[in-house]
Amino acid sequence: MQITVELPDDLAAHPNAAHEAMEAFAIEGYRSGALSAYQTRVLLGFDTRYELDGFLKEHGVWAHAYSVEDLEKDAAGFQRRG
User: Do 54 and 42 form a contact (C-beta atoms < 8 A)?
Assistant: First the structure.
C-alpha cells in the first residue's frame, strides 16, 4: 500500500525527507505500542531484530526494546528449529 503525506516546505527540502518521515512514523508507532517490533522492522526494511534494536537505541527508544513476549516468541522459534 502506498500512502501520500503532504510535508511542509521546510521539511520537504531535507535531502531525505521521505525517509525521515518514515523513520519518525515507525519510531512513534513502536514507542506507542501501535506497531510491534516485527512490524517496525519490516516497515524500516531491516533484515534482523538486531538492526532494529540498534536503530531504536540510536534514536533513544528504550521502551519495548525487548519484552518478555519477544523473548517467548524467540524461544518458541528456536524450539521449532530444533
Answer: no
